[in-house]
Amino acid sequence: MASKIAGFMALLRKPSTKYSLVALLSVGFLSGILFWGGFNTAMEATNTLDFCISCHEMRDNVYVEYKKTIHYTNRTGVRAVCSDCHVPKDWSHKMMRKIKASGEVWGKIVGTIDTKEKFEANRLRLAENEWARMKASDSRECRNCHSFDSMDTERQKLRGAKMHKIAQDEKKTCIDCHKGIAHQKPKGMKEDEE
Q1: Is 88 in contact with 58 (CB distance < 8 Å)?
Q2: By residue range, what is the domain housing residue 70?
Q3: What count of Cα atoms within 13 Å lies in the side-chain half-sphere of residue 166?
Q4: Is 34 left (phi over 0), alpha (psi -120 to 50) or beta?
Q5: Exposure winner among 41, 80, 175, 181, fewest CB in 10 A?
């Protein structure tokens, strides 16, 4: 068996006498395009609402809450789906998030949050992890749709305009004030104690 592997490796290292360099490069180039197209298609398929709620842990818990928010139904008809808030748009950050999310599949496999009771028991930890990620990125995903520069504070309620001005001056980020905007706040939050 070892001699077969060594023979195969030797074959890979020696130049081809049967095929031209142009043919080999063309096949490699087309294979790369097909691989990249398939990979990108698979990545985008995992960013759909249907994919996100395909497991009952999401469908029966956070999706139910999300359907009651302004991010799901609003006067303008613009909907933010799971990936709009939880997956970065740029490629490098998206890949890092996807790698981390693949680790979250382990929780699905071992049943960490497979019942409503287990989900609620882990909700605070899950939320704090997500809030920390959002804070570390300066609420990058929020800012895909919302930014201080594009806010018309004249059209905001007085309290909102005041708080957005303070947040801007103090270099705060969206998640500092807007926890629970698309999902219920977990019980036992530190802010509740203060």
Answers
A1: no
A2: 29-146
A3: 8
A4: alpha
A5: 41
The DSSP secondary-structure symbol of 144 reads G
Domains of the chain: total: 1
Q: Are 108 and 164 in contact (CB under 8 A)?
A: no
Q: Is residue 2 part of a domain?
A: no
Return d(Cα 96, Cα 92) in angstroms, integer. Answer: 6
- How does DSSP assign 61-86, residue by residue? IIHHHHTTSTTTS-TT-----HHHHH
Distance from the Cα of residue 58 to its chain's centroid: 14
Residue 115 included in any domain:
yes
Q: What is the pLDDT of residues 5-59, one digit of tens each?
A: 888 777 767 777 788 878 888 999 999 999 999 999 999 999 999 999 998 888 9
Under 8 Å between Cβ of 177 and 131? no
